[in-house]
Amino acid sequence: MKALVKTAVGPGNMEIRQVPEPKVGFRDVMIKVEGAGICGSDVLIWQDRMPLYVPPLILGHNVSGVVTEVGSEVRGLPLGTRVIIDLNVGACGRCPACRSKREYLCLSRTIIGFTIDGGMAEYMSVPQPWVVPIPDNVDMYHAAAVDVCNAIHTVVDRSPIGYGTSTVILGPGFQGLTILQVAKLLGASPIVMVGRERHKERLALAKELGADYAVASDLEDLPKLVSELTGGQGVESVIETTGVEAGLGQAVEIVKKGGCITLLGSLPTGTSLDMHKVVYDEISLLGVRGYNRENIEFFLSAMKSGKIDVSSFVGTFPLENWQEAFEARVNRKVIQPVLVP
Ligand SMILES: [Zn+2]
Ligand SMILES: [Zn+2]
């Protein structure tokens, strides 16, 4: 079968290869891949700016597809079932992390598309517990945006956001725009989306998706706006998705005393910030590493009811045109490119 393989450590080193079809063990499910979404971390693997991966490796952790074969012990997944994959494959279900619904921190968890082969291929074999059926009315290419679950986890489990919570989202990328939709669902208000002048189309999209304000921070005075909106207090919740030190600095500047900064952006080692302010203003810093099964349930029910809508994010590319798709993500032409094998 065809697969997109990172062949070795280093920048580039990625190509379509003919590889053997995966084996189906007695507890496994064979999936014919319909869509494989490209994540920012896939781009980092392509560029060799993410140390976690183990080549040779088939990329892809955002996968939708159809069940074409099951092992002898698999029950309740008829052939033809439309599914997505929970990337926490191998989580033990018994350790403290798993029992506290943080299976993404389980020591026995592998990571699809990082440490074991992912879904940018024609077929993929996955143990049944991590194969999740999807509702009939959810589009397969939209379902391949499984990383929306990161946004759900960020807002629901790792932020104080609820009804009426003042919220600033830094970075109008895929994560920021999906976080916006989830924060809106939970009643956050006001919501300020922050980008740069070069993001003006995405800032306009943020307004369409329900942001109360969409600000280019290199043109407009964000701290002043936040101060006006909050009576000089600062915002209760800042979500940092940019992964750059300047974004974190901005977060510390605009969060209120006792407020919370949630970190989803992939900040590099050595990133520094004003820790004095963090200590004396009692600012909470919460990292985000992944998502859990409940977040997937939330994703599917919100997609089914149209409360989360990724149709303006998704653009499809044939698997062979992977380079064009990766470049489209880097150049901000397509928010969520999906490869179609
Ligand atoms: Zn991802
Ligand atoms: Zn565990």
Question: What's a quick, concise take on this entry?
Answer:
The protein is of the alpha/beta class.
Topology:
Layout (H helix, E strand, L loop, with lengths): L1 E5 L7 E5 L9 E10 L2 H8 L9 E2 L3 E9 L11 E4 L10 H4 L23 E5 L3 E3 L6 H4 L4 H10 L9 E4 L3 H12 L5 E5 L4 H9 L4 E4 L5 H8 L5 E6 L4 H10 E9 L11 H6 L3 E4 L5 H12 L9 E5 L3 H9 L5 E5 L1
Parallel strand pairs: 9-10, 9-12, 10-11, 12-13, 13-14, 15-16
Antiparallel strand pairs: 1-2, 1-4, 3-5, 3-7, 3-16, 5-6, 6-8
Helix pairs in contact: 4-5, 4-10
The structure holds zinc ion (2 copies).
The site of one zinc ion (ZN) has 8 residues, from α2.
Summarize the structure in words.
The chain is of the alpha/beta class and 341 residues long. It contains eleven helices and 16 strands. It has helices spanning 40-47, 96-99, 140-143, 148-157, 174-185, 200-208, 222-229, 245-254, 275-280, 293-304, 322-330, and strands at 2-6, 14-18, 28-37, 57-58, 62-70, 82-85, 123-127, 131-133, 167-170, 191-195, 213-216, 235-240, 255-263, 284-287, 314-318, 336-340. Strands 3, 5, 6, 7, 8, 15 and 16 form a seven-stranded mixed sheet that branches. Strands 11-10-9-12-13-14 form a six-stranded parallel sheet, sandwiched between helices. Strands 2-1-4 form a three-stranded antiparallel sheet, with no helix packed on it. Helix 6 links the parallel strand 10 (191-195) and strand 11. Helix 4 (148-157) crosses helix 5 (174-185) and helix 4 (148-157) crosses helix 10 (293-304). The longest helix has 12 residues, at 174-185. The termini are close together. The relative contact order is 0.15. The mean pLDDT is 95. The structure holds zinc ion (2 copies).
